[in-house]
UniProtKB/TrEMBL annotation:
Residues 158-389 form the ATP-grasp domain. This is ATP-grasp domain-containing protein. InterPro entries: ATP-grasp (IPR011761), ATP_grasp_subdomain_1 (IPR013815), Dala_Dala_lig_C (IPR011095). Belongs to the D-alanine--D-alanine ligase family. It comes from Alexandrium catenella (Red tide dinoflagellate). The keyword Repeat does not apply.
Amino acid sequence: QDSHQVLLPGRRLLARGTSASAMAATQTEQVRVLHLIGSPTSAFYFDLSVMYGRTSAEHASLDRSAFRHEYAVVFTDGKWAFPSALDPESLQRAERLSMPAALMAIEAKETPVDVVMPHMFCMEGMTRYRALCEMLGIEVLGCPAHTCTLANDKFLTKQLCQSAGVPVPEGEMFRADMHGADVEETARQILARRATPLIVKPAREDNSIGLSLVRTDEKLAAALAKAFQYDDHILVEEYIAGRECRVAVLEVEDESGSVRLEALPKIEYLLEDIRTASHKLATNDQGKLLSTGDNPAEAILKAKKEGDRVCPAQFPPEVHVRLDDLARKAHRALGCKYYSLYDVRISKEGFPFMLESCLFCSFSPYSVVVALAEKTDGEQLRPHPRVFEMLLRR
C-alpha cells in the first residue's frame, strides 16, 4: 500500500490505506488540550491568566473522558513549568524550565498535543507565544498570532476595519517621540481642530488601562500624559454619547463541514459614561487582583454590580442588524478564527461604532463569549462547556 502519510487534526500521522476501524479508533482517542497560561510581562497579567485558566480548566462539567487537560505555565521571569494543577501550591513546586527546554518537552510528548488553549492576555502572550505553538504545528483555539499582533494595536485595527466598511469613531494616533515631550503643546494642537469630550487611551493596552474621558479642555494634557505612561502610541478620538455593548460572532460548523458566522446575543453595559478598569476586574489599592487560591473567580465576581448589565441586550431590530453586520465584517477583515468579540458604542441615533476588538476568550463560565452563547435559542451552544468542547473537537 502507498505509505505516504496524511496529517490528521491533532498531528497524528496515519498511513494512506489505514483501515476504517483504525482511523475511527484514532479519532475517538482523548483530545489532548494544553492550556497555555501565565505572562512574562507582569504579575498583573500573570495573575489574570491563572485566574481565567483555572476557571476554564477546573470546571466540573468538562468531559474528561473525551478531553485530557494539561497545563503549561509561563512565569514572569520567562521560565516555563508543566504543573499537575493550577493552585498556588502546585505552581510553586513545579519544576522550572527554560523556553527551549519547555518547547522540546512539548515536542517530545509520547502522545502529541492536539490543541493549545491560550489564556495569556499580555501582548507577548497574544502574539509571540501563540506563534511558538503555531511553529510547533499545534492548532491554537483562537485567532492566529499575526491577527492578534494587528488587533493588539487599536489604531491599526480601526484603520483596517474601516477600510472594510466597519464604522469607527473619528480619531488620530500620537507618538511619544513626537508628541510626548510637551503634552501641553500637543493638547493645544489637538484642541485647535477637535472639541471635547474626547477619549484618550493607549493604543496597545487592554482592560481600560490608561483610559480617560476628557470632558473639558484643561483636562486633556493630563490625559495625554497618563496614556503615554502605558504606551508610546496613544489614541485621541471622538466620544460617542449613547449606549455601550459587546458583540460576538462564533464560527459554527455544520454536519457537512461548512462554517457559518453566527452572531450571538449581545450584552449591554448600563453606564454613566464609559467602562473603566473598575467595571471589569476588582483589585486592591496596589492593583493586585482580588482573587484567592480557593476562589480564583473572586476578582471577576466582585467587579460585577447588580443591574450594571443587560443580557441579552434589548435593542430595536434595525440596531441588532447593524451590530451583527459590524461584527461579521470586522471578523473577516481581521482574519479572525473560531470567534471574535467587539466593544461597540451605539449613538443616540442608533448607529454602532466599533471601539476595539477583543480577540481572547478562556472559555470559562465567566467569559463573555460563553455568557452570550448561553442566551442563544436551542441547545447547540449551551449549556457550558458545550461551545468550548465543540470548538476543541473542531
